[in-house]
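Q: For a teaching handout, I want to show students what a protein-ligand complex looks like in C-alpha cell form. Below are the inputs, and the small molecule is fe (ii) ion. Please produce the holo structure.
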Amino acid sequence: MHWVAEKGSTEELATQKLLNAMASPTFRPVMLPALAREALQLSRDPNLDLRVMAQLIEKDQVLAARFLAVANSSFFSRAAAAMSVHAALSRIGLETARNVLLLASVAPFLFAAASKQFEDGMKQLRIHSLAVAAACTYLTKYKGISLPDASLAGLVHDLGAATLLRHVSEHQADFAELVRSGPTMVRVFQVLHPLAGARVADRWQLPESIREVIVGHHAAASSSSLMVKVVAAADGYVHALLGSSARASGGSRCQAYRENRNTEDPASGHPW
Ligand SMILES: [Fe+2]
Ligand SMILES: [Fe+2]
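A: Here is the structure, written as C-alpha cells, with fe (ii) ion included.
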C-alpha cells in the first residue's frame, strides 16, 4: 500500500508512535501459550494420532474446556456436543482443530477491546477473520488445492489489525487525535497492520508460509505464494459478501467506511 502521510499530520505522528511501540521491548501483544504452540506444531503431522493431540491439550484444563466450547459452538458443529477433546478432534479433524485451538487459546484476549468504544470494531474483525478462514477452506476444496494451512492463515491474516486495535484501545490517551478521526485511524491501520501482524507472528513462531500471508495479503499480485493468493481471494470474497469496505467499487475503502459507519466506534467498518 503506497501512502505518504503529510509531515507533522495526525496520521504521520500516530504511524510513528505505533512503529515505535511495536519496536519497543516493552511491546506486549497477546501471546500464544506455549502449549498451544506445541499443539499447533504437532498438528502439522497428517499421520498424527489424535489421542496424542488430545492428551497434550488436556494438560491444560482451562484450554481443554475452551477447546471443547469452541469446537461445540454452532460455527464449527451442528451435531450433538462432543464430551471429550478426543471426540471433538475426531469429529472436526486436524485442519479445523488448528483454528479451534487458536481461537480457544487467544481469541478471548486477542479480540477483546480495552474500552467499550472499540467493541464493535473488534467483533467485526473477529467475524471477518472467521469468515475468511471458512472461505479459504471452501476455495481450496472447490479448486482442489492442497493447502492444509490455508484456513489457519485466513484466520490470522489480520492478526495485526487486532493487535493495533488493542494497543490503541489500551493507550487511548496517547492516540486521542487519531481516535477522534476515524478515517485517519483506518488509513494508519491499513498501512501498518501487515507489519504489526508480522511482529506478532514472529513472537508466536508461526510458520514462514503463514507469516508471508500476514505480510502480503494486500499485495497478492506481487507474491509468488499460492497461499497468499488464496487468502487474498478469500479476503476479497468476504469483503464483497459481508464487508462495507467491499462496497467501495471504484472508490476508496475509507470512503465506504465513512458512509457505512453508524456507531461511535472508530474501528467499525472493518476495512482490513
Ligand atoms: Fe488485511
Ligand atoms: Fe482481511
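A: Two things your students might notice: The CA atoms of residues 172 and 179 lie 7 Å apart. Residues 128, 132, 157-158, 235, 272 surround fe (ii) ion (ligand 2) (CB under 6 Å).
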